[in-house]
Amino acid sequence: MKSLDLIRADGVPDSYVFKHSLVRDALYQSLLSEARQRLHLQIADEIERLSRNRLVEVAELLAYHYAQTSNDSRAFHYLVLAGRKCLSVYSLEESANHFYCAVGLLVLDRNPSCASDEQVIECFVSYTRLLNMNLK
């Protein structure tokens, strides 16, 4: 890829970025869904491992990557965590998106086993707080 002039050094050792987002997007879309899911899972697992002591800080990132995998329980956990984090700083639209995706895992994907009863209650209590904030 470097010889094709599609990537450039990022300034950090052994780190590269695509010269154009269209190239990145085209390569990403060309991956088979199973390979894409595997990459997202590896990325999420590594972020989670490296951020053990500050998971709330990277909740949105973890929610995104786990939501792209078949690990619905981790996706639900981080979607709710990201929703609560965004709610705490009054980023209401972002919070709503996270809660909507979390509820979608339960209902739309028909996978109620991806979360414990306590996690579901926590999600709906926080989501209700968000709805009450939007009404004021």
What report would you give on this structure?
The chain has two domains: 30 residues, no CATH class; 103 residues. The relative contact order is 0.09. The mean pLDDT is 85. With 136 residues, it is mainly alpha-helical. The chain contains six helices and two strands; from the N terminus they run E-E-H-H-H-H-H-H.
Q: How do the helices and strands follow one another from N- to C-terminus? A: EEHHHHHH
- The number of helical segments is 6
Question: What is the helix content?
Answer: 55-70%
Low-confidence stretches: none
- The helix/strand class is mainly alpha
Rg over alpha carbons: 17 Å
Task: State the end-to-end CA separation.
Answer: 52 Å
Number of spatially distinct domains: 2
SSE map:
Blueprint: E1 7-9, E2 16-18, H1 21-30, H2 33-50, H3 59-67, H4 72-88, H5 92-106, H6 117-135
Antiparallel strand pairs: 1-2
Helix pairs in contact: 2-3, 3-4, 4-5, 4-6, 5-6
